[in-house]
Amino acid sequence: MSAPGRVCPLRYHYGPGAIARAPERPAETLYVIGGLYGNLPALDAVDAMAGAEPGPVTLCFNGDFNWFNVDDASFRTINERVLRHDAIVGNVEAELGEDSDAAGCGCAYPESVDQRVVERSNQIHARLKRMAAQHPDLLRRLGELPMVARYRVGEVRVGAVHGDAESLAGWRFDVAALDDPGENAWRAEAFARARVDVFASTHTCLPAMRCFDLDGLKVVANNGAAGMPNAFGTHFGILTRIGASPAPHSRLYGYTLKGVHIDALAIHYDDPAWQMRFLRNWPEGSPAWLSYYNRIAQGPDFRLEVSLLTKVHSHTRP
Fold it and tell me: What is the spatial distance between Cα 37 and Cα 63, in angstroms, rounded to a whole number?
């Protein structure tokens, strides 16, 4: 489909080879924070979590750190603070500087997503885009962000992406795709060509972590959303922590690979403060309120199945 919000522009494509060629940065502890969505209290909580670590922490914001922050002050604050750290572009940021609105929000929503949700996302992004235009210095810096990043933590090689191994808005690291055995050959090739042990992704807005036996264990860690609840009845975001030593924070689930800890950590932000900020910009009946307020208030219709998340999927290479 080529309608705004469903199309995946050709400029979003990079492929696993681009991940293999990206400069490799060493990290003792890596936080991959996807889908902050303009939640300033969540950013405060991430900073506090990093400050509680015993050693240095590299923060990588892997896209969509903007979304609900359509007021002048929070747009500037979120972007200035994020851009002090490592960051890659998400589809939200990729579309902010585009003259055309042909891609809408750039989410490349699959057909399973209701068209009304797609249209509201395009409306949210259009408002954010108007705010971004008032901050040309930030817009320039956002336009310079790469689409992928590469790290090494201990002996583990990490590819940080927004969507999947092929594209900025790819959905092949979605929960359903990760549990589809028909994707086995593609996954094996993606890991081999990217020359990584872990893909750390986001974009699909729901968390998933899967370990695959592909001539050696490989992990896909999709944090879902750092700035919104990820499961029904919860009020916390999630980030992916990859560390040479265990986390000082309680983990939700995770794996250990080559002695490196790959964990999903809860981001316990100030929920009342966040809801107040959200409603100031997006009151009842607005596009973001219609699409997201129920999730923000009570979580999505999704449950964290820890037993499935921690299972090793035995798939051999083709």
Answer: 9
